[in-house]
Amino acid sequence: MVKTEVWVEEAWQNIIQKINNTSRIIGAQFPHVSVEGKYECAEPHWWTAGFWPGQLWLIYRDTQDESLKTIAEACERKLDQVIMDYTRLDHDMGFMWTLTSVARYKLLGAEDAKRRALLVANLLMGRYNANGHFIRAWNPWFEGDENTGYAIIDSAMNLPLLFWASRETDDPRFRSVAIRHANTILDHFIEADGAVHHIVHFDPETGEKVESLRGQGYAPHSAWSRGTAWAIYGLTLCYTYTQEMKYLQAAKRVAHFFLSHLPDDFVPPWDFRLPADVTPYRDSSAGAIAAPGLLLLAEQVSSIEAHIYQRAAENILQSLYVNYGAWDDPQEEGLIRHGTSHYPQQKHLDNPLIYGDYFFVEGIARLKGDQDVFWS
Q1: In the chain, how many domains are there?
Q2: What 3-state class would DSSP assign to 336?
Q3: Range of the structural domain that residue 55 is part of
Q4: For an engineered disulfide with 210, which of 104, 201, 228, 240 has Cβ 3.0 to 4.6 Å away?
């Protein structure tokens, strides 16, 4: 293993160079998945819309490159059309506006960005189901679709928008909803061994749990690795905002499950519990998401424990950089190869994914000393 400070700085310079090049191609669009080297761009309402401008803000924070700032601000303005389109809004508002409006407010003190983020926090809070103490995940995907009682583990990373809004306004309503939803995650999403469900279906009228669903995992009681990563990071963030030990203990339990199931190269398969006849495609995005979560977790625990999580995060990020990075391929717009988007639907089973790229960049930024993150 090369010295950490050497490879981290090398990785950061490669990130800057690659993003400088791709920013001229992508501009103020919303890339989602790289296919045959080119990022396909989604509509502004798609849940991944925040990750590209989020990357730009991470690099701008370090380089003060005005061209990246201009693109990120244009992306944020394009999201305004989504705010007024009720049918397009879902619980992923946290992903989208934390990495655009909250990021710009934190970096530049822009009051219009703060107002956008607070408006969206109100809309996210409006998805709270008081009967079941959960934030509804989605609107119907098609005519006749019924998902009013669905909540998903990805929501753990959307809660920081509510915690942030409560802190900014000194209004406990946002925090209260976030805490109640986080408690539902503890009660219904996390198994005793640390495995995590993707979707839990509740009766929207009574609030009773109906069933666990496989979602993007292999089965209802398998272990979708990206969901495990969302839980590590999201629950650790809940602890940083509340100082409630139950969130820290749950984050540690999930982290131990995740780390104990990693293969030799430290990058997880798309599900940790697969039968022998199912291809264990890697999901580099799951590793990328888990890594900054583990770095944050390391900051919350004793020095003895911290070493475990810190070293694991470094191993994951270094493997992603050395074994999965596309630095040697100028024809590839993605940063990190071998992500698995949605195996059950057979969508993008071995591709760079924009959220994998974002969290890899965030993780490297953390390792090189940028401790402030947009989520907290």
Answers
A1: 1
A2: strand
A3: 4-367
A4: 201
